[in-house]
Amino acid sequence: MVVSSTTITKKSESTSFVEINLDTLDANLKRIKEVTGPGVKTMAVVKANAYGHDSVLIARALSGKITALGVATVEEAVTIRKAGVIMPLLVFAPVRKSALSDYKAFNIVAVAGSFEELQLMSPAVSFHLEFDTGMGRLGFEPADWPEIKKVLEKKKLRPSGIMTHFATADEPSTAKTADQLSRFNSLLDEMGSWSQSKVIHASNSGGMMHYPEARFSMVRFGISLYGYAPGKQFPDALKDLKPVLSWKSTVVACKRLRKGETISYDATYTADKDGWLVVIPVGYADGLRRGLSNRIYMKTGGEMLKQVGNITMDYTMLWSEKPVPTGQQVTILGPDAMTADQWAEMLGTITYEIICGIHPKIDRHTVTGRA
């Protein structure tokens, strides 16, 4: 990413860091809102440290721009609250008795998906009902509604939202998603007045993109906000979304490399000609996957350099035709180098795993300015 008129906050003194481009984040959010329309509430999912982007940093950047935040655990929600973020926070995890005081003290919205959890609820705690329409993970069965209703009436509880989660919405026109949507709509009809004036949500990024009829009153987006498609590619309306994150480091050593010399553990790379070995202080302990060894490129000085030898715990090496000065910046991952999509394809995994896998010990800071 080449940034002009750049402002950087929380400048890191470490040799490796992650940059979060706030202008790109805002542009992605604006485009998502244009697609979903003005009548749909927006929940940004910031679980897993905001998919590796820093949950507090992202939550603060989104304050006043979205309806709510979604997190995986109460602990994540409390961290964000303590950072001064005041917008609604929904915790997807099952409710634990030990955490009830935190829901109340920090004004956190719970998700109840079992009768055991429902018994823990009180009028003092805001909560959404979760239904399993085919994800096969958490939530009540739609057939449970008559019994749920009895518990709600007996305990004088009023859920503030109703939700489900799609299993295959990352691709358009799947029979599975159509079936889940049909089951959810039937449930809402059966609930009658109980579903009225509630926040109704089912769609993650994939559902939001590919199933407009499933946007209901709120959408939950994570990966798309950060600039990556939830499936194989963005639909045309969202192709201009861009990655928000760039992972960077600096050269700590550069030395002569002669033809025939081997590099790193197991000697998996042998130089086929003379050149220079460039060392950067990032390895698999930082989230740079060892399976990428000898397969990726990193950008420095305007050139893409091949990574050579097995990636080690704390270091990785690049091959260069010419010497590279120590201290020069290297882009490991980012919109102007290789992207998380490319790494994921190489490893046979998904983009989420790549960006979530960048270790929290790597400093995050923000930049503003057009890419």
Q: Calculate the terminal CA-CA distance, rounded to whole Å.
A: 6 Å
Count of helical stretches: 11
CATH class of the largest domain: Alpha Beta
Shape: elongated
Fold topology:
Blueprint: E1 7-9, E2 16-21, H1 22-36, E3 41-45, H2 47-52, H3 55-62, E4 68-71, H4 74-82, E5 89-91, H5 100-105, E6 110-112, H6 115-120, E7 127-130, H7 145-155, E8 161-163, H8 175-191, E9 199-201, H9 205-210, E10 218-221, E11 245-250, E12 253-257, E13 262-263, E14 269-270, E15 275-280, E16 297-300, E17 303-308, E18 316-320, E19 329-333, H10 340-347, H11 351-356, E20 363-368
Describe the protein in words.
The protein is an alpha/beta fold and 371 residues long. The protein has two domains: 22-226, Alanine racemase (TIM Barrel), CATH 3.20.20; 245-368, Lyase, Ornithine Decarboxylase, Chain A, domain 1 (Beta Barrel). Helix content is 26%, strand content 23%. The longest helix has 17 residues, at 175-191. The protein is elongated, with a radius of gyration of 23 Å. The N and C termini lie close together (6 Å). The relative contact order is 0.16.
Task: Output the keywords.
2 domains, 20 strands, 11 helices, single chain, five-stranded antiparallel beta sheet, 26% helix, Lyase, Ornithine Decarboxylase, Chain A, domain 1, five-stranded mixed beta sheet, TIM Barrel
